[in-house]
Amino acid sequence: MTAVRPIAPRPAAAPTATGTTQVLTFRLDDDLFAADIHDVERVLRWQAPTPVPNVPPWMAGVVDYHRRVVPVIDLRVRFEVPAGPVTSERRIVIFNAGDAWIGGIVDAVLDVSALDRAALEPPPPLFRGLSADYLQGIVRRQGTLVILLRTAELLSATDRLTLARVIGTAGDG
After folding, report:
1. What's the mean pLDDT in 38-64?
2. pLDDT tens digits, residue range 87-97?
3. Among 29, 93, 94, 122, which is most buried by a count of CB atoms within 10 Å?
4. Is 11's pLDDT higher than 80?
5. Which of 57, 62, 169, 80 is nearest to 129 (CA)?
6. Which of 149, 154, 172, 122 shows the shortest CA–CA distance to 33?
7. Average pLDDT of 77-94?
8. Contact between residue 41 and residue 101 where contact means Cβ atoms under 8 Å apart
């Protein structure tokens, strides 16, 4: 396997003149999440990631995407959502997370829609610690809460170092 190679970061998503931005909305169990469309590289059909030994439980493995080894996070495990069945709607979303791509397993991708930045509320106090680092805010859409993620924060600096070490040496044995 090839070592994880950094890619050039995309520019930060800027709101349009109307104060809106486009987001990709996806589902984990009954909860809705979103990511700024500028933070989404691609949505892949489900393929089981290749397992990697000695990684945290939320790390599902890796996939080959554009000749790069991309780590894949099981977002259900990372966000402490109970396990669910694999359905035909399951996808891997490739996120632009700072200087690298990160895959995230989601139950379904729902849509791309406009988000009014003025309607974005900060995460409530019940989200503390590491989980709050992932959250940019919460917005109500048609009576349903949608959690907007900070994709660059899905992996901490320590997580990135661990993955680089493990993935970089996975093919050496």
Report:
1. 94
2. 999 999 999 98
3. 93
4. no
5. 80
6. 149
7. 91
8. yes
> Closest by alpha carbon to 95, among 85, 87, 103, 84?
103
Residues 32, 150: Cα–Cα separation, whole Å:
14
Say how far apart CA 33 and CA 113 lie, in whole Å: 12
Q: Within the chain, how many helices (H) and strands (E) appear? A: 3, 10
Report pTM: 0.80
Tokens 């949505």 belong to 43
Contact 33, 78 (CB under 8 A): no
- Sketch the domain layout of the chain as residue ranges: 20-169
Pairing of strands 91-97, 59-65: unpaired
Q: Does domain 20-169 correspond to CATH entry 2.40.50.180?
A: yes
Say which residue, 27 or 168, is predicted with more confidence: 27
48 contact partners, CB below 8 Å, separation of at least 6? 61
Give the mean model confidence (pLDDT) for residues 147-154.
88
Strands (E), the chain: 20-28, 31-36, 40-45, 59-65, 68-74, 91-97, 100-106, 108-116, 135-141, 144-149
